[in-house]
């Protein structure tokens, strides 16, 4: 009789321990799931926060000169508007190819109008991805013209499997960065500063 009671007690203890173990596993699994979802939500929120071209380049060291130029020209709000754009963004190296002292002159109040014209020439309306540009080139027999916010035409062509941009003066620039993320706009890093016809 005693043995029977002792056996019953042991069975109940075993069930309780097993139940607690299962509950702990469930809690651990739930905590891991919550952690994974939190990480995913954080990563998604970071991507969602980078909506515009301005958001994408403003903290990047390789576009520090361009960012300074956009601030000097007071174009941040214009480019950060609700309409999608494609920004062909000259890198710091691109600006360094300009004649000595030119960048400093453009950043001065006297150079503001010229700076605005130059920077707006690097922007076109609409989010044109790299694949979209290539598709448009194929549809137009390898020739594509995009109207910039400055009002002049920017020519796009393909050379040695690379996209080439040409301004009205015959200056050219290659797209050297095409993986800059933004949910609303398209951003391409280019290796030269392009200039509209009247400059």
UniProtKB/TrEMBL annotation:
TM region(s), chain numbering = none
The record ties this protein, via InterPro entries, to: Adhesion/Biosynth-related, FAS1_dom_sf, FAS1_domain
SMART domains, alphabetically? FAS1
Q: Tell me the domain of life.
A: Bacteria
> Which residues belong to any copy of the FAS1 domain?
50-194
Q: What is this protein called?
A: Fasciclin domain-containing protein
């Amino acid at each position: 009789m005693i043995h029977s009671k002792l056996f019953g007690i042991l069975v109940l203890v075993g069930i309780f321990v097993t139940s607690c173990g299962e509950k702990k596993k469930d809690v651990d699994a739930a905590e891991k799931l919550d952690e994974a979802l939190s990480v995913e939500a954080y990563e998604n929120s970071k991507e969602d926060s980078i909506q515009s071209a301005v958001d994408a380049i403003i903290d990047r060291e390789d576009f520090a000169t361009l960012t300074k130029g956009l601030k000097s020209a007071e174009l941040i709000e214009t480019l950060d508007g609700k309409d999608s754009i494609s920004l062909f963004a000259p890198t710091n190296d691109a600006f360094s190819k300009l004649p000595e002292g030119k960048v400093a002159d453009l950043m001065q109040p006297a150079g503001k109008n010229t700076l605005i014209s130059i920077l707006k020439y690097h922007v076109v309306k609409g989010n044109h991805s790299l694949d979209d540009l290539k598709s448009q080139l194929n549809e137009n027999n390898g020739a594509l013209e995009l109207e910039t916010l400055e009002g002049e035409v920017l020519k796009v062509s393909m050379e040695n499997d690379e996209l080439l941009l040409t301004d009205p003066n015959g200056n050219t620039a290659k797209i050297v960065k095409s993986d800059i993320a933004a949910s609303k706009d398209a951003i391409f890093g280019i290796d030269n500063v392009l200039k509209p016809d009247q400059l």
